[in-house]
Amino acid sequence: MNCDPGNCPGKIGLSASSQKVLQQSLDTHRDNLDRRLEHWDHNLIKTQSQNNQLSDVYLSHLKTLETTIQQSFSEVKDRLRTELESSSQFQRDMVLHSGTIEQPVATLERGICEPLSHLQASIQSCLSPISASLEQVSDYTSALPRFDNRASFTSLVHKESKETDTFNKPKATPRSQENRQFEQPYLEAISDDSEQPPLKRRRL
Questions:
Q1: What mean pLDDT is predicted for residues 126-133?
Q2: Are 117 and 125 in contact (CB under 8 A)?
Q3: Cβ-proximal residues to 22 (8 Å cutoff; 6+ apart), any chain
Q4: Predicted confidence (pLDDT) per residue in 47-96, tens digit
Q5: Cα dihedral angle (68, 73, 76, 77), rounded to 10 degrees?
Q6: Residue 101 and residue 94: Cα distance in Å, rounded?
Q7: How far apart are CA 48 and CA 57, in angstroms?
Q8: What is the pLDDT of residues 92-124, one digit of tens each?
Q9: What ranges does the record give for the region Disordered, renumbered to this chain (predicted)?
């Protein structure tokens, strides 16, 4: 900032050398301030450029993401529409072919289920007498006496066999004279020595 020494306010009475030093100091501060302002301006421009680049990158990413989301949503929407159409077509086909499906099922019931039910009834009718017989055998075996050891069981068996023989043995009846005539005399068997094998003699 330059001014006439005689016209500058507050500078009256300064010598020429002091004014020169003051002027140099002011010029130096002004130059430093200008350099700082230029540096700040350069940094500001650089920062703005970086911010613009980052903003462009972020905007590009956002646009890509938006495009991807829209495509995915469109694909999902198309798939959902296709599935709904397939479901509707399936329902229509079921209504159309319900009679065709019910008829074979009824035929299978008549051809398989009914014979199987008859076979089951016949098997049960055959098994009923067998089960009744098995129940009777089970009742009979449960009514039999139980023996703690083999000796008591053997003695009981011998006792029952003797009683059975005594009961079944015919009683003696008096024989008449006529029956005695027809009876053959009892002859003792005479052993024949010739039938016996000869004794072997021992040589001395």
A1: 79
A2: no
A3: 11, 14
A4: 999 999 999 999 999 999 999 999 999 999 999 999 999 999 988 888 88
A5: -140
A6: 9
A7: 14
A8: 888 887 777 777 777 777 777 788 888 888 888
A9: 160-204
Q: How far apart are CA 34 and CA 29, in angstroms?
A: 8
Q: Which residue has the tokens 């003797």?
A: 162
Residues recorded for the chain? 204
In DSSP notation, 13-47 reads T--HHHHHHHHHHHHHHHHHHHHHHHHHHHHHHHH
pTM reported for the whole predicted model? 0.31
Residue 23 has pLDDT above 80, yes or no: yes
Q: Are 14 and 5 in contact (CB under 8 A)?
A: yes
AA letter at 160 = E
Q: 143-148: which pairs have CB atoms within 8 A and are 24 or more residues apart?
A: none
When pLDDT is averaged across residues 26-33 and rounded to a whole number, the result is: 90
The type of residue at 5 is P
1 contacts: CB under 8 Å, gap ≥ 6: 26, 30
Collapse the DSSP code of 82 into the 3-class scheme (helix H, G, I; strand E, B; otherwise coil) and give the result.
helix
| Separation in Å, CA 100 to CA 91, 97, 103, 162 | 15, 5, 6, 81
Mean pLDDT of 157-164: 59
Domain boundaries, the chain: 19-103
